[in-house]
Amino acid sequence: MDIRFVTRGVELKDDLKDYMESKMSKLERFFNRIIDGQVVMSFGRGLFTVEITSNANGVIMRGQSSAPDMRKAFDQGLKNLERQIKRHNAYLKDRAQLKTHDVSFELPVLEGELPIPPEEEIVKVKRFPLRPMSAKEATMQMDLLGHEFYLFKNAESGGVNVVYKRKDGGYGLLEPTE
Fold first, then answer.
1. I want to staple 42 with a disulfide (CB 3.0 to 4.6 A). Which of 8, 50, 139, 155 is the partner?
2. Residue 98: what pLDDT?
3. Rounded CA gap, 144 and 160, in Å?
């Protein structure tokens, strides 16, 4: 597995880097198709934040943690990532897990006009490849990443869609029309 380390305002010592590499290589015992990983370390507000991202055969999984000690933050973030990998592994072994998700394809009904927020500038732009997948696969990917929404290319229609978590539970799907 190829591991990339990114530090932001933090010095990474060789012994800690070796420790992180050995721990990351043990992830392959949970899932043998992990292609690469990235460890991002930063320091702010008196805490070290470690974000660990892995690419498991096209499925991106992420674990993040903050602690006063960088090694503790890494260990907790790795535990979060291991939990996601185990969950993904269980999904692959038993696809019936998808049936447990209450997927709702209804759009929320807005009551009245929404207030217009003041214009804010865009501070970050993210680019990523759109892989064709079903709505159910997109909800699983969204859950693995821990996000509230997920943009994907619908394998059935070929269009760009968004799945999102609804406040009342379940999921929603946004399909643009022309």
1. 8
2. 53
3. 20
Residue pair 150/174 in contact by the 8 Å Cβ criterion: no
Q: Would you report the helix, strand and coil content of the chain in percent, each value rounded to 5?
A: 30, 30, 35
Q: Which fold has domain 100-174?
A: SHC Adaptor Protein (3.30.505)
Residue 63: both structure tokens together: 């674990």
What per-residue confidence (pLDDT) applies to 113?
Answer: 62
How many angstroms separate the CA atoms of 154 and 102, rounded?
19
CATH dotted code for 2-93: 3.30.160.100
The pLDDT value recorded for residue 22 is 87
- CA dist 19 and 34 (Å) reads 19
With H, G, I as helix, E, B as strand and everything else as coil, classify residue 136.
helix
Tell me the per-residue pLDDT of 50-81, one tens digit each, with 9 for 90 and over.
Answer: 999 988 777 888 889 999 999 999 999 999 88
Domain span(s) for CATH 3.30.505.50 in the chain: 100-174
Burial of 3 (0-12, 13-18, 19+ CB in 10 A): middle
Q: Could you tell me which of 97, 91, 171, 162 has the C-alpha nearest to residue 130?
A: 162
CA distance linking residue 52 with residue 68, whole number of Å: 17
Tokens read off for 46: 């008196």
Which regions of the chain are under pLDDT 50? 97
